[in-house]
Write a structure and sequence with these properties.
There is one protein chain. By secondary structure, the chain is an all-alpha fold. It has helices at about 1-15, 20-25, 30-75, 80-90, 95-110, 115-140, 140-175, 180-239. It has one domain (about 20-239). It is rod-shaped.
Length: about 240
């Protein structure tokens, strides 16, 4: 038994030494090449989304720190116009977008409606802004989820194609040796590995970025509540 396994392993290593990526690509069927090409496109797209989201979230985090420090003083002094100007200078900040909308709604409503309606108008403006910013933050994440869930099945389709080609090799060569099925088996393994290579980073990135978006949502909700409390205190102070 041990001797048989040793001989089989030696044959596998001998055949493997004759194969490299270029030779495997040359022997792959057109359908398997299409599968690999689709997976390559999905990989490029997913990495593009990852880079775009990473840059966006990093910029939002940095500008939000600056915005919070600067706007606190302006709101403390009651300078709403200055606070809006600070928010416009930090357009990549998720908190700045929400606060700017709330301040604008508060200013415009203050001149037209009663105190209670002013607060309600500011709340509605903040809710709309939070929803819009949330959608912006999540843009592209659904694509990562789709790629992560479907790429293994695309690779599995290539696996089936490779196995079929292996059986065709057996039928064509009238033999059952390793050389008769090596091309098809290699094709099947390559497409399977490539499918997993595309799916795993996409799933990891989706989970990581989803947690980031949830943290941003909490920050925007907290900022909205603090701004509403500020509006209530401001209107109360004027009475």
């Amino acid at each position: 038994m041990v001797a048989t396994l040793y001989v089989f392993s030696a044959l596998v290593l001998q055949e493997a030494s004759q194969w490299d990526l270029r030779s495997m690509w040359g022997t792959m069927s057109p359908l398997a090449k299409i599968v690999v090409f689709i997976l390559f496109i999905l990989s490029i797209y997913s990495f593009g989304v990852m880079i775009d989201r990473a840059l966006m979230y990093s910029a939002a985090r940095k500008q939000s720190r600056v915005f919070v420090q600067q706007v606190a003083g302006a709101l403390k002094d009651g300078k709403l116009d200055e606070a809006i100007a600070i928010a416009e200078r930090n357009k990549k900040s998720h908190i700045a977008k929400v606060v700017a909308t709330g301040l604008s709604e508060f200013q415009s409503a203050s001149q037209q409606v009663s105190d209670s309606d002013v607060i309600d108008a500011a709340k509605r403006g903040l809710e709309r802004s939070v929803a819009i910013v949330h959608a912006e933050m999540k843009r592209g994440l659904s694509a990562l989820a789709t790629i992560g869930s479907t790429a293994p099945f695309v690779g599995l389709f290539g696996t089936v194609v490779g196995i079929l080609n292996a059986f065709k090799g057996i039928a064509a060569n009238k033999a059952t040796g390793l050389s008769a099925v090596a091309g098809g088996i290699a094709e099947a393994l390559v497409t399977t590995a490539f499918g997993l290579l595309v799916a795993v980073p996409a799933v990891w990135a989706y989970n990581y970025f989803t947690n980031k978006v949830e943290a941003f949502d909490v920050e925007m909700d907290n900022s909205s509540m603090e701004l509403i409390n500020y509006f209530i205190l401001r209107r109360g102070a004027k009475k």
